Amino acid sequence: MLQLFYFMNPYIDKLKAVISPARQQIVEHPLYNTISTLDDLRIFTQYHVFAVWDFMSLLKGLQQQLTCVKYPWVPVGSANTRYLINEIVIGEESDVDEQGNRCSHYELYCRAMEQLGAPTIGIQQLLSLLQDGMKVQAALQQLQLPPAVQQFVQFTFDTLDQQDVAAVAAVFTFGREDLIPDMFYGLVKDLEQKFPGQLSIFKYYLERHIEVDGDHHSMLAMEMVQELCGDDAAAWEQATAAALQALKLRKLLWDGALEQILLNKRSKINN
Asked: 188 falls in which pLDDT band (50, 70, 90)?
């Protein structure tokens, strides 16, 4: 029923048409077919983990703006938008792992990295600096993270800092939730055949996202954008611009990971 509603929404249709070429560049990115060894996958995850983490920040930023997260409690916004974001928060922040234990998707991803032998020191150092009170931009620069990572994460927090809830929701929806199932399909395909028994957590993470985001969360997120933008053409323009920029920076992140994987492959051949 929700899906039919969106097909009939001209604003959603127009936004999707504008971002479609940028979205397709990510869905068809050569990165996926380049990942052929465990080393390739380890490099990829060291880039992607920053997107997994800052997605959680987008999620909590939306929850802060659309609900009351302090006391004394007072009603904020509409009950429907509160429901939509809280439903997604439950699924992202306290889902189940492959054994049925509660965990966030970020924590699940870090466990997947540990299983496949990918270092998590970069993201751990970033979170440590942030917990000590350092600003995001300063922490990114201090750690000298790859430029593609820095630009991707900085855009996320710039968007959050601007407090334009419709833009944040559009980045969250069309730069993340709606994109994830198509984006991850290329990675999960044949993964078990290539690396039998070595990537069970990572495989579960990908399949869980395809299942949850494709069938449920993306629909909730689209309804949230519709509620926030309503019939305000200016709000839809801002939402479209934010979603488009998010997709462009996702491509740059993937470009950076691909470049590093190819450099590593060439280095092995030369040695």
From this structure: confident
